[in-house]
Amino acid sequence: MPNGNLDTWLHHQGNQATGRHLGLAQRISIVTNIADALDYLHHYSGRPIIHCDLKPSNILLDIHMNACLGDFGIARFYIDSKLRTVGDSSSITVNGTLGYMAPEYAENGHASTCGDVYSFGIVLLEMLTGKRPTDDMFRNELTIVRFVEMNFPDHTLNFLDCRLVNDCNGTIDQIAAGTENLPIFQSLLSLLRVALLCTRQSPTERLNMREVATQMRKINMVNTGGRVESSTSFRRLVSWASQRS
To answer: How far is Cα 75 from Cα 102, in angstroms, rounded to an integer?
Structure first.
């Protein structure tokens, strides 16, 4: 893809231009694209599909910085968990990426749409904090989810990606002065709330991707002055593939 993947934009390598970074509006647009894609996979693709390995390196960016999901190597068709038991040898198992896998995968290994929701929440937290879930600071009982929970909402500015803080300098000054009803600040809080609801320990307490996509479109609409800019690139890709098959 012309603009590579999300990982290279969030975490600059030694040979990459240090000036290349994503502003808040771009991050919201990208994560809205991904929410739309997962919503399509889970609810509108005919038979629900679980990606199983959502992470920044599998989020590809086209020439217009629209995001598409890549690497469906371990994607699974969804099978109703009520029809399966933990000991069933034909139950679906998943091998995702450390830090992004839902905690229940370590216990039973069964893939679920709830697992994709959890991974989405982790990616969203990574986009807002600038830290990988495998960062050295997250060890023992401290995870990226726990770290954000401990500081949200009163100390939100303390854990934001420094590049986001730099982009929002004027807003930060107003927030420090006690003006907390600014659209940018409210969008940040809304994004963090969505991420934390996606990463609840219990799968049954998480949002589903239809709910997540709806929330993301609302946040995106606020930041685009009322214009909803959700991407249809994933549906176009599916249509193109079906025509070639």
So the answer is: 15
The answer to whether position 152 is within a domain reads: yes
Residue 54 lies in a domain: yes
Say which amino acid occupies 132: R
Task: List Cα–Cα distances, 128 to 122, 156, 168, in angstroms.
Answer: 10, 10, 13
- Report if residue 238 sits inside a domain: no
Residues involved in catalysis: 53
Tokens of 221: 């609409």
Query: Is 43 inside a domain boundary?
Result: yes
Residue 25, domain CATH: 1.10.510.10
Domain count, the chain: 1
Asked whether 152 and 192 are in contact (CB, 8 A), the reply is yes
**Owning domain of residue 186:** 6-78+91-223
Token pair, residue 39, equals: 């919503």
The model's pTM:
0.83
Backbone dihedral angles phi then psi of residue 93, each to the nearest 5 degrees: -115, 160
Alpha helices (H) in 16-112, listed in sequence order = 24-43, 103-108
Per the CB < 8 A criterion, the answer to whether 57 and 5 are in contact is yes
pLDDT, tens digit (0-9, with 9 covering 90-100), for 72-109: 877 877 654 444 433 333 345 566 899 999 999 888 77
